[in-house]
UniProtKB/TrEMBL annotation:
Pfam families: P16-Arc (PF04699). The gene is LOC107919238. GO terms for cellular component: Arp2/3 protein complex; cortical cytoskeleton. GO terms for molecular function: protein-macromolecule adaptor activity. The lineage of its organism: Eukaryota, Viridiplantae, Streptophyta, Embryophyta, Tracheophyta. InterPro entries: ARPC5 (IPR006789), ARPC5_sf (IPR036743). Keywords: Cytoplasm, Cytoskeleton. This is Actin-related protein 2/3 complex subunit 5. Functions as component of the Arp2/3 complex which is involved in regulation of actin polymerization and together with an activating nucleation-promoting factor (NPF) mediates the formation of branched actin networks. Arp2/3 complex plays a critical role in the control of cell morphogenesis via the modulation of cell polarity development.
Length: 122
């Protein structure tokens, strides 16, 4: 019985990873079409479960969408505030990873996101 449950959980993880991969392909397509707002929204949909592989795979898509942003303030103005919390979940653990350009972009997004979040909560 335990093996059946373990197998079902594994299949579930594989299904989730397949969905994340499809989502990542959509994100890449939207970035190529210069539609960063749609790319960010799709990237932030359905925060993945606690499985580390799923979280990392989803983070890759979010990261691609974030690095495509040219107008950080414009993007954040376009997002529903419900996305701010999800975006912060991705920003905080990844702040120290990547090259200088990547880190600079994430810090810029973090700064603007913090300003927006503070505005929303006051």
């Amino acid at each position: 019985m335990a093996e059946t449950e373990k197998s079902a959980g594994s299949d579930n993880t594989e299904d989730i990873l397949a969905k994340i991969e499809n989502k990542s392909l959509k994100i890449e397509s939207l970035i190529k079409q210069y539609k960063p707002i749609k790319a960010i929204k799709i990237a932030l949909e359905s925060y993945p479960p606690q499985d580390e592989r799923c979280k990392y795979a989803n983070w890759v898509g979010v990261h691609k969408a974030l690095m495509a942003i040219k107008d950080v303030e414009g993007i954040l103005r376009s997002l529903d505030p419900r996305y701010y919390d999800i975006l912060m979940k991705y920003k905080c653990p990844s702040s120290s990873m990547g090259d200088r350009t990547t880190c600079d972009q994430r810090l810029k997004i973090h700064e603007k996101l913090t300003e927006k979040a503070d505005f929303v909560t006051t």
